[in-house]
Amino acid sequence: MKIPLISFSFLALVLPLFAPSANADTVLGADLSTFAVLGGTPVVSFAGGNDTITGNVGVSPAASITIATPPTFTLTGGTQHAGDATAATAQAGLTNALTILGGLASVGTSQSNLNFVSLNPGVYNIGAADLTGTLTLTNTLNVTHPTWVFIGSSLTSSGVVATAPGLFDAANAGVYWDIGSSAALSGVMLGNVLASTSITTTGVTDTCGRLLASTGDVTFAGNNTISNTCSFSASGLSGGLTVTSGGGGTVVVSGGGVPPSSVNIPEPGTFALLLAGLLPLGLLALRKLQASC
Fold this sequence. Notes:
- By secondary structure, the chain is an alpha/beta fold.
- The protein has one domain (29-240).
- It has helices at 5-18, 29-32, 85-102, 269-292, and strands spanning 35-39, 44-47, 50-54, 56-59, 65-67, 72-76, 80-82, 109-110, 117-119, 122-131, 134-137, 147-157, 160-163, 174-179, 183-188, 191-195, 199-206, 209-213, 218-221, 224-227, 242-247, 250-255, 258-264.
- The strands form 3 sheets. It has a 17-stranded parallel sheet that branches. The chain has a 3-stranded parallel sheet with strand order 9-11-13, with no helix packed on it. Strands 21-22-23 form a 3-stranded antiparallel sheet, with no helix packed on it.
- A hairpin with a 2-residue loop joins β21 (242-247) and β22 (250-255).
- It starts with a helix and ends with a helix.
């Protein structure tokens, strides 16, 4: 009995789709981490002022970036991506990152007050947060690769996110703000702000992090400085957490003082499309196999 080569080709294509990857990844992933500013729709806009951005600036699915005139807009270490494949891939990574970080809420500690407190690495459920004072990140627990995850329904920040001296001397630290709707920022921010809807700034400095909005826009007013890399964290504080496949549509998130957690990840739509396209090939292989018996 001869087994058609086509059947082996079909299996070689399909079987890896069911095998969970054992490779570890970061929360943001390689594509999203190259961006300092990313919006969804309608646009990323810069309404005057002096803006200095280090890293890529992009928007997707919208296809335009509005820069008001006359601003002083300086972009270094990156390029603009308006509705292109690079921005689309980054937005897919943002959707994934929001799902992963949001899934950590079950292991989080309630922390409704962010003003004039010091917080060790961990996951904090902050609700509708309003930061007007100083939040100090510290690591008295001596956690390796310290990581802070703040999960809130909204964020208004006009205060300062500060750090204890030498806090990030250890490599691969992470600071993440997972916001379920929108964020309004001014003052001094630190880390990566991921908003499900939009981000508005009126003079914010985030010299080590990113502003990433999923479905809405990122709007700048006043003087703003955003950088996805800095002297004490080449990754722009996007480290700390390790993401590995848990199988069955889940990932396991661990590290940085965060309890290991299993998070459900929706199956990508491309899988269904690919399987639909390969199904006729598989049926043809089976028919040839039956005919040869």
